[in-house]
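User: Sorry, what's this?
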Amino acid sequence: MFGDLFEEEPSLAPGLPCGPGKKAKPRDAEPPAPREVTHLSGIKNQGGTCYLNSLLQTLLFTPEFREALFSLGPEELGSLEDNNKPDAKVRIIPLQLQRLFAQLLLLDQQAASTTDLTDSFGWNSNEEVRQHDVQELNRILFSALETSLVGTSGHDLINRLYHGTVVNQIVCKECKNISERQEDFLDLTVAVKDVSGLEEALCNMYVEEEYFENDNLYRCGACNKLVEASKSAKLRKLPPFLTISLLRFNFDFEKCERYKETSCYTFPFRINLRPFCEQTELDDLEYMFDLFSVIIHKGGCYGGHYHVFIKDVDELGNWQLQEEGNKLTKDKIVKDNESGKENENPLTDLKEILSQEESKQIPVDQLGQKFLEKKGISWNKKYRKPFGPLRKYLQSHSQVFLFSPDGNKISLKENYHKLQFGSDSQGQDLQSPSQNNNVQWTSEKLSTRLKDDTSGSHWFDLNDSKVQPIKEKDIEKQFQGKESAYMLFYRKSRLKRPSEAHANPRYGIPEHLLNEMNAANAELQKRRAECDSADNNIDLHLHLASRYKFYNGALHPSLSRKESVLDLTIDKRKTLGDLRQSVFQLLEFWEGDLILSTAKSLPAGLHLYQTLNGDELTLDGIGLADGADIFVWNGKEVGGIDVLTGLDHEPVLLNVLHLAGYNEGGKGQHFTESQHIFPCSAELSTLCKALTSSRGIILMNSSGSDNEAKNWKVIPEENMKKTVKTTGLTDGSSILVLDSHDQSLVNVVDGNLTAFTHDISWLQVKNFCRLEAEERLVKITATIETVMSDIKITAIRELQLEEQLVNDICLRPINRNGKLLSPVPEDYTVKEAELKMGSLLGLCHGKAPTSTQLFLYFVIGNDLQAVPEMEIVVEETATVKECLNLMLEKSGLPGDSWHLRRIDWCYEAGEALSEENATLKELNVCNGDTLVITEGKLPPKGFLKVPIWWYEPLIYYGHQEPIQNQVNGVTCKIGALEVSSAGTSPTYIQTDMRLCYMGDIEISGEASLADLKIQAMTLPSFQEFSVPSPEFLRAWTVESKRPGKLLRNNQQQLNEYKLGGKAEICIEPLQKEESLSPSDLLLRVQMGIPGERDYYCSADLLWDISKECTALALRQRLAAHYSLPVDKIEIAKHFPEKFEWMPISSWTQQISKRKRKKKQESLQSAPYHLKDGDIIGVKNLLLDDSKDFSTMRDDIGKEKLRLLAVEKKKSRQAEHLQNDVFSEGKVAPKHRKPEVALSINVGVFR
């Protein structure tokens, strides 16, 4: 919501950054930055308190409020030190507000904190990051202050400064009786929508009258009858400080959403409120108010940011605009003038034309001609393309232009306001717009624009921590837009400030707060001095030559590091000479020259770089950073050994690998590793002489990875003159040294290493032969190039098995579940078999498949979990039929009525291998796949094997035995149901449907639906029924053991229905022939039994939805079906899966926010999703006023679902309880709290 609008500035003062290598200090250790050039203090944003900051700054710069608050001493308010005492009466809110105001006035910091104040409000951290409305805060804060100041001399502080009254009057036109009601206000809320400015809004509220006439009459208490009357409102009492809230946030009832009014809304710098007051005979200064604060809201109605423009009445700040910005502005103006660029603003042009007219109004038709005469170009040529036609432009700027009632004339709206706000010398009110249609512009001009005032008080923009000066004309920019004025604060013009308060922030502040602020400033200065010193101090590590030895190309301490290194803290602004003097003082004695050199710890040891020269240079100037290492020596030798310094002699630590001891066959070698140090300027020939014999070679790793042998390259003879540095060897680089007997591992042609130590792997082999040897595990060493046949032979030897078994056993990988996978071909290498180090293999009976064979698993039947898997090896060129015969032969199954299916991801029988003559390779059957032998022969290609079910609803009489359902001679016996209705009287109850399996049929996919029905009628189970023709049968697909999709066109081919290989069809008998069109929707409707929670038996209803599928259309269709009035029925859809009923009624059309188009009110979409076969319940309101559609069967079904859900919940809780044993340290997630209204907690002081 807030984005980065509330991001606070870092408290680190400008110009005091942490240097490189400087240890970070905690943020609370840094003193706050001092005030900037404005000499005014901002307020820190706690995350979402910009609205609070803006209001507090306004109250601070209201001197009368500030001084009245400061006049309340500790004897009335108590003391913050006594807040924790149980019997102390501390008014903490005004005390914290006093303290915050004193900090903002006197404390030398860029921004003050409101944490103590918000703590006194009782706000938590959530409240401090949640944004609220500043208008709401203004009222709540004033209420909290009034409550806190009860019983003190400041009890009427808010009432005295901000309280005003409005009187509402109703005048009877007959008896002239006046009925009035007085209302108090602390702020006035004025409309923004369709209003051009503040003066027009006040006019609408306090000048215009509302008339009660015609059908809208007023009952007069004096006349005791309905009469014509007028209603008006006036300001009766004006407070010294007038707060005005602009109603910028509105609600769009068409779009059902909030929005912010961003149109132009002007407000004056000085306003005369005489036209809006009840009493107008006082002096003009009593009605004049000056603007001194504007709270601005930036953003939309769901979030944004507040800041405030404030007039510095006491001139406490330093108002000085940036000269650089002024210069750029002047340069731009000069440049624009020189280029002769004209500001093309149609609004300015039209206002200029209208203002020059004597009558101040002009016919719209003549305005275009006037424009052509004044500007020398027509409106259409100059402005029509970007702004549209002239009349349309005038209508879109209704805040500026005013049309006459007939729409033919146009005038400036601001002149219209001037007429209303003017008054004659006797203070007589002018007529309202409705009473004076003949507009005459004779009143004195009242400017609504702000003008720059170069003398007196100045304006500042206080935006949380930032404070910057602005000009008065900048306020005009807040008239409109997303960043616009939200609250206005005016003060009476006659209020004068004492001369002692001018530019004196200490004026009126009590002595105890002055002393507290003086002490706080002293503490701030002390902390800033300490911080400045800490920021400039650096820690140096002095390494003494007497405590070091030089060997292996680097310096190494002869003692512990603590004894060899001295730490010195020094100001980096001091010179090198000062550092040298400090070192002399630190050392007890030193003989000879004292040379200081920069040093650095490397993996090889300590190395010296630059000698420090120039005692007059500062330490910061020569580049010494915090934590630098300095070596103190004589500049020549250490321990009698000359030491070379600089980058060219930097030591490099190399890892040197030697091959030693190799396995049988010479594939893969073990190695030994050692570390050697060489100067980076040393030649490679020097390395070769030091590490190898005369005939040895050196290899370096080109990629930096030791995992593969191909990355190792032999260093050729011509590169031996290169140095360690130019070759690219750095600290930690590895080189491989091969002596003469190891060079067989190198490919002489390209210089690559053919095998390397990381190629070595080991595998585990377990004995599954179960012969004389025990079932045990052995570990076999191999490389990625080792052939699986060699591993098998080695395993036989290790397990002490007979070598004659070599041709009768194989190696099979074992997965994590202990299952034996398909055997690995013996000609595969470890890499080709995709075996990893530590893989477990089983030594089993049987031959491994060759590269042209497939190892397959197969199971028999549909219950795959209960049947063990069997294994077989077949050629990949074998056909499906040959593979099936081999599997039947191995499993001993008789007959040929079987077929093969793949296994799907749910480990169930899936797709059938229907092409018997296709090879396994052509069907992408892979090594290790599992096939299922399923009973039944597959239909020929292009044919479907469809199970047929008999479907019909069950009908039941209340407490009698089940009846027989007879349909056109079709007789079917139906079993008893468990659920019956309550009561003793027999009733007809529609219960669930029944599916009876009739048999399977094989039918061509090109056959029609009528052919399927005819073939289904030939099944033996159908012989007991008498069905005249296929038109007396209705076909459905079966989905989840329920009728699914209705198959409606008897002549349509089955392939067009896309039934699939597992489709099942149910047949429903009908009482008459049926022919359904594509637009017919088949519903099962049932009428409720009056007074009981049951229904009469259902009836099929065909509903044509070609025109509309709405709730109203369905109600009309059902009302016609039952011969009832539309408004006397209630309907609902039944959801059998949930045992619930959803009433169907017309609902409000939803509007898409993106496309702004109305969605179709279709019952086939959410939430009803109406489809064929749905059950619709109907209630006859003439006989039954109950709107409860549920039955006892629904109650029983819901109870079963509830018990099932309880069982699932218990099982989940048991699982969670078990998991919690292993995750006790985890913190439970926090639930989001609901949003709460803004409030301030205040103690009781009455």
Remarks:
- The chain is about 20% helix and 25% strand.
- The first helix runs from residue 50 to 60.
